[in-house]
Amino acid sequence: MSRTEAIDRYLQEHLEAYLQETIRLCAQPSVSATGEGVLECAQLVEQILQQHGFETWKIEGYGNPVVVGRAAGKSERTLLFYNHYDVQPPEPLELWDSPPFAPQIREGKLFARGAKDDKGEFMARLAAVEAVRAAHGGELPCGVLFVVEGNEEVGSPGIARFVQDHLDLLKCDGAIWEEGGIDFEERPGTSLGRRGILALELEVETLSRDAHSGNAHILPSAAWRMVRVLAALKDENERILIPGFYDHVRPVSEQDLELLRNLPDLEAYLRQSFGVRGFVNNLSGFELRKAVFNPTCNIQGITTGYQGPGTKTVIPARAKAKLDFRLVPDQDPTDILQKLRAHLDAEGFTDVQITHADYMFPARSDPQHPLVELAARTAQEVYQKPYQRIPLTGGSSPVYAFAGPLNIPVIDAGVGYGITNRTHAPNENIRIQDFHNAARHIARILDGFAGIF
Amino acid sequence: MSRTEAIDRYLQEHLEAYLQETIRLCAQPSVSATGEGVLECAQLVEQILQQHGFETWKIEGYGNPVVVGRAAGKSERTLLFYNHYDVQPPEPLELWDSPPFAPQIREGKLFARGAKDDKGEFMARLAAVEAVRAAHGGELPCGVLFVVEGNEEVGSPGIARFVQDHLDLLKCDGAIWEEGGIDFEERPGTSLGRRGILALELEVETLSRDAHSGNAHILPSAAWRMVRVLAALKDENERILIPGFYDHVRPVSEQDLELLRNLPDLEAYLRQSFGVRGFVNNLSGFELRKAVFNPTCNIQGITTGYQGPGTKTVIPARAKAKLDFRLVPDQDPTDILQKLRAHLDAEGFTDVQITHADYMFPARSDPQHPLVELAARTAQEVYQKPYQRIPLTGGSSPVYAFAGPLNIPVIDAGVGYGITNRTHAPNENIRIQDFHNAARHIARILDGFAGIF
């Protein structure tokens, strides 16, 4: 029996046990937004890691505790798994078919808050570790590190500092990010880059209180001022008007274009899914795919004046706008924040406050790194489909906090299935078959990891 | 004893009786926003008019009943009083020192919801009518008409049609509007014009649901589209960009400028009252006063996207903005509405909906009309200060619904006092002395009215 066969047999035989362990973990609430059950869950995660042969640390000082597990292997090479034990709030409860923290298996799926995001992912990885350890006669072929944090669903505010403070403990040669799996057409794949983000609020006050709109010829309106501010940030062709904004944008490489060409076409899917008549700048085809390399300035929301039913003849005294800028390699969100302030000042908007600024840096991994090749080869084995290499995804994540300081490639592999996971929503679930396949894929990566260097 | 002395003596002797009648009327709730007590109040007003010798009509079909009272006089000339019996909701109740519908006199003031707006005004006029009738030996020197409506606090939606439908019944030679009195420095005066208004909502939808902002490079944002729409309505110098918007703006006359020059300077007051650093377009001095002749485009409020605490990385699918345009003579709100639609279409905003459009026309009265001269002469007698003639006020009212179809001048005289009435707010009140003076002033106008033609 080959080692791969041994791994698969182990996983087949122990699948039920790992599902039961996942159920136990999902039954423990851990809502970081409210604090419910978070400390108990950190404790439970540490216990589970210990039960699976990991040396553990529960590290305080970065928000909710960060649980670290380390297991040595035959090789010095170490693979890091980033996961999180916190979950999104389960509300609205009335839309769940079974209670969010009473996990239930039905129709080949496990339903629970956190089943997918991120407790199922974590447990599939532990299953993979055990399978590989068994197939290697009780000793792992490479070192394994788990970083399981408790603030991911509230934006991981402490994780970058945590990594900086623990570079020795976290020394490793590659990482698998919190999630992965297959898309809505069952294709496996990985993101090889995430955009950064600079989120902030703009606030302006023109009057000490709302005034009657019969005075609109003389009293300055915060609503109009905010419109002017926003119009000064981006032109009608989506070009961001902050001087120097594009200075550090890395040109799109021929390799990136090639990766984009190999990706499936999402245009029809997006058009249908969001009822879109026309895309931004009337983009279509390959240009639409390439647009992910454009940084963006998004308005999350605007609040000003009267928003109730009917009419209220007021001049708004205050206006707020929440914005997020998605940044591409090698833009620096702290640099962009300074340039934004300078731009507002130069345009005469010195009275406009920037508050609540928060950010993540962009990150890229080398598409040709041997870890990517290994993940692709093993994904083909498990899923019988090519592993999609997405050069850059539109969202943001704390990948940068690990990739940069630890100088490692970061890839995705996991239990996800693009159609039905209902992540962050009622009836969150995973398919048992995806849990099984994720463990098989990750075990193969662990099995081959030491050999790629 | 002169007729004026007889009038003043009558009012002095009967002041207490009219205050008691005002208290009785204010004790009857009549909240048009909720319907509370409205029909009972219409009944009560009709009864009061009958008790004071008026023939009455309670006219249905225009919202809450319109109560009309008519009393003939020696002359065919007729003066119309426009008033309303409905009041604003009394909430928040906890901020009242005495219950809103349990009128209370203390410290020389009458406190009640409606004491000022508009029941005290109505009763001061009835007192004036009685005083004049008594001084003229039991017969009025001119005809008197009361129009007391019940929808003023919800925008008088039926009043223009009501007037159009009852031109014969309402035939008259001049009108005193619902309110009047003295300003914060105890100066009497009148508005001689009101701006019109076109209020509406703009709505736009770019997606069938909010999307993750990681897609902002491809999915169109309703928030950004609304910013573009608004920016296309007005330039940074307050010039409204709708083609033809200014076509029917009547030039400011030399007479208007002269009236403006005679008005007190409100700049310091406004600056302090609203904490204003700079006025619109950095106006100051005489230019600031003159700006009331500029029509405006005001944003009442904007609603789009996420407005709660913290950050939410969404692209808003929908955006709404409530606007009001204040229009000057001779702009026509129905014409402006058509031009706005045409402008949006021409600018490519065919997807932007205009909803909830509602309007009033602007109105002007001739500053030299003998009724204005009469009111000024008698105001000087009563208040010992010149009667301010304000050529145009910034707000809007249904004055136009009477002034145009009946072809009459419309002036203000009443019980108001700019500092303490707390109209629409808790502890609404009038000063007894202002009630008394309003009756004296209005009685003098009634006394002289037939003689000015």
Automatic annotation (TrEMBL), chains A, B:
<dbReference type="GO" id="GO:0006508">
    <property type="term" value="P:proteolysis"/>
</dbReference>
<dbReference type="InterPro" id="IPR051458">
    <property type="entry name" value="Cyt/Met_Dipeptidase"/>
</dbReference>
<keyword id="KW-0479">Metal-binding</keyword>
<dbReference type="InterPro" id="IPR002933">
    <property type="entry name" value="Peptidase_M20"/>
</dbReference>
<dbReference type="GO" id="GO:0046872">
    <property type="term" value="F:metal ion binding"/>
</dbReference>
<protein>
    <submittedName>
        <fullName>Peptidase M20</fullName>
    </submittedName>
</protein>
<dbReference type="Pfam" id="PF07687">
    <property type="entry name" value="M20_dimer"/>
</dbReference>
<dbReference type="GO" id="GO:0005829">
    <property type="term" value="C:cytosol"/>
</dbReference>
<keyword id="KW-0378">Hydrolase</keyword>
<keyword id="KW-0645">Protease</keyword>
<dbReference type="GO" id="GO:0009014">
    <property type="term" value="F:succinyl-diaminopimelate desuccinylase activity"/>
</dbReference>
<dbReference type="GO" id="GO:0009089">
    <property type="term" value="P:lysine biosynthetic process via diaminopimelate"/>
</dbReference>
<dbReference type="GO" id="GO:0008233">
    <property type="term" value="F:peptidase activity"/>
</dbReference>
<dbReference type="InterPro" id="IPR011650">
    <property type="entry name" value="Peptidase_M20_dimer"/>
</dbReference>
<dbReference type="InterPro" id="IPR036264">
    <property type="entry name" value="Bact_exopeptidase_dim_dom"/>
</dbReference>
<dbReference type="Pfam" id="PF01546">
    <property type="entry name" value="Peptidase_M20"/>
</dbReference>
<feature type="domain" description="Peptidase M20 dimerisation">
    <location>
        <begin position="193"/>
        <end position="348"/>
    </location>
</feature>
